[in-house]
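May I ask for a single protein's sequence together with how it folds?
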Amino acid sequence: MDVNKIADSPKNKIDFLNQELIPIKEERNKLNEEAKKWAEKRNKLNEKVQSIRKEANSIKQKRDDINKQVQELKNLRNQVSSKGKEKRDKVLELQEKIGALKEKRPNGNLRQVSREIEELDWKIQTSSLPVKEEQELINQIRELETQLVVQKRIKKVKDKLFELRTEQQGFGSEAKTIHEKLSEMAEQSQKYHTQMIAILEKARDLQTEATEAHQKYVESRQQAQEKHEKCVDLIKQIKAIEQELKETADKKKSERQSELQKDLEERALAKLKNGEKLLWDEFQILAEKGLL
């Protein structure tokens, strides 16, 4: 509403401006209170976000530590598997060697051939045989001894083969144990990861809420500032009118004092002319004017 449309009385103008100022002040104070509440909510939410993110970082550290152990176990499993493959390759090599040795001998086994050699040797030593028959037995012993050498080599290879298979099985068992432990830790790592993601999503939701609260705070503060500026403008108008009233009152007072002094001076001069006794203030004013 235009103040100029109101009655020209300065007092009426001040009353009108004060009536307009009061509700604006109330709105400003209300907006400041709302801004304060939004700021408190925002700060609490930000504190929660920081706390949750700290928890997420703690879980992330646990996950990363487990992932590091998982990688170490993978490396160890690969080493064990590589050693197991080496043993397996040697097993295959020895199996081929045994197969080649078996082709060099007839059916039978080490114990059986040894027994046959002992029996033939005993027969030669304890029996009186014709030279030809004895020579045939000697040739049989030589043939059996050749077989015995081959069978001993086969036994040695088989013993080594058994040792390698045992070692291979040991590496296999170790690799299996490592794999089981690895799977267990990988599952635990995934649980930590899932937990961390859930917590970060919660933090993200709270952060969104905190951002909205901050926006509400900014809006309330801006509106409060607008109301405050309007209050300042109205107060300036009121003070300007009050200053104008004061200046007018001071002017009137000065004029009134001048009139009183003039009247006093005229009375004093009349008394002085008539030879009447002057009062102190009458004497003083005439002295000040240089009329005595």
Notes: The helical segments are 10-102, 110-126, 131-274, 280-289. Residues 242 and 248 are 10 Å apart (CA to CA). Residues 3-264 form one domain. The radius of gyration is 60 Å.
